[in-house]
Amino acid sequence: MIHSPQTDGVAPARLDPETLAAHFDDLYPDFDPHEARVAADRCYFCFDAPCVTACPTDIDIPLFIRQIQAGMPDAAARTILSQNILGSMCARVCPTETLCEGACVRQIAEGNPVEIGRLQRYATDQLLLVNDHPFERAAETGKRIAVIGAGPAGLACAHRLAMKGHSVTIHDGHSKPGGLNEYGIAAYKAANGIAQAEVDWLMGIGGIRIETGSTLGDTVTLDDLKRDHDAVFLGMGLGGVNALKIPGADLDGVRDAVDFIAELRQSDDLSALPVGRHVVVIGGGMTAVDAAVQSRLLGAEHVTIVYRRGREAMSASDYELDHAATEGVKIITDAMPVALQGDGAVTGVDFAYTRSGLDGLEKTGQGFVLKADQVFKAIGQTLDGAPAHLDLSGGKIAVSATGRTSLAGIWAGGDCATGGEDLTVTAVQQGRDAAEDIHASLTGATG
């Protein structure tokens, strides 16, 4: 039931609490044991399986599916978590349709892949529910490592280092650990506190201390960390947001999509969250989709995503874009904002149609106006506060294949570093691989 269908402007409680609770419940229900075994039976257990090649963390997918088929979900979870310690959240947020499931032989032959993501979620959730941590911490090495950022990269790095017997301190500016998984993912993808439950479970390895409210350049400096630790891993993500450099960008009702998503994820009362009746989201990535879909779920009546290039250039997957469309989000491509209308508060957005020209993107000379009482900017994030003297590439910290930066004793991974795809799973992979290299560097170990 819509409480305030006639209310223009940004307002709370557009939907009743029961409807909001249903909208923000899990997007997909859990498999029960029978459903999981039926789904597992569809796997061909390929030799040189293409799904494994497509997985950034190299999970042995045929093995864990066979273990589920055999009625051993705990063993399946161990297979997954040995490669991806954040396997439960990754099962929820990975673009499996373009990674493992996109490479599945059944997808190629039939257009209907094995449901690898849901099977992974089924297996890993079993261990979280019973708080079973299958890994043991090695003997204490006496080595100390500092990690900046308690997001997927930092957590994966910290867990692997702690498992090898090192002592790890994580510094994070938020009040809770989790990074993108806690603050930047749509609520219906991470319902029922799963992100924090996974962090709590991960901490069961021991040897990890998290200092929240602690940021690089504010409460700690890189020089201090280098002096007091044997190695430093930078996994702070991308804290800056690109500016919308057009007239009216400072009007009320215009805000960064990442802030909106974080506020929603931390809200204890969704009915208290204000949302517009006419919402426009500018951008073409997952942040744009998450902001748009959640605006609809909060009760916005008209939500439009506008992207300056064609659909094929949007970084959000076809699956996510199709899901947005099923939720009632309109998607307009080949259009760019040129001005925001309003006197104090935004009332509309002027757009110009675009095309590819000899000198790049250009305006066609035609345009349109969208009514808007709320506008979300989702036009990309930037590295904010990178330590001095670190080599950068493309606006990110330049790293080797194992995460080494240009400064001795400093590694980096995740969204702040080169080589990734701004995905949770690639951040986990980079954090894990950097931990292995840090361990080798500190101990001379080769495995």
Report on this model:
It is a single chain. The protein is of the alpha/beta class. The chain folds into 3 domains: 17-25 and 243-381, 3-Layer(bba) Sandwich (FAD/NAD(P)-binding domain); 33-130, Orthogonal Bundle (Fumarate Reductase Iron-sulfur Protein, Chain B, domain 2), CATH 1.10.1060; 144-239 and 383-443, FAD/NAD(P)-binding domain. Helix content is 34%, strand content 19%. The chain has helices at 17-23, 33-40, 50-54, 61-69, 73-81, 87-93, 100-103, 105-110, 116-130, 152-163, 180-183, 194-202, 222-228, 257-265, 286-298, 318-326, 424-443; strands at residues 144-148, 167-172, 208-212, 231-234, 240-241, 254-256, 278-282, 302-306, 329-332, 335-343, 345-357, 360-371, 374-377, 381-382, 392-393, 396-397, 410-412. A 5-stranded parallel beta sheet has the order 3-2-1-4-17, with helices on both faces. A 5-stranded parallel beta sheet has the order 6-13-7-8-9. A 3-stranded antiparallel beta sheet has the order 10-11-12, with no helix packed on it. Helix 16 links the parallel strand 8 and strand 9 (329-332). Helix 4 (61-69) packs across helix 9, helix 5 (73-81) packs across helix 9 and helix 15 (286-298) runs parallel beside helix 16. The longest helix has 20 residues, at 424-443. The relative contact order is 0.14. Mean pLDDT is 95; it is low at 1-6.
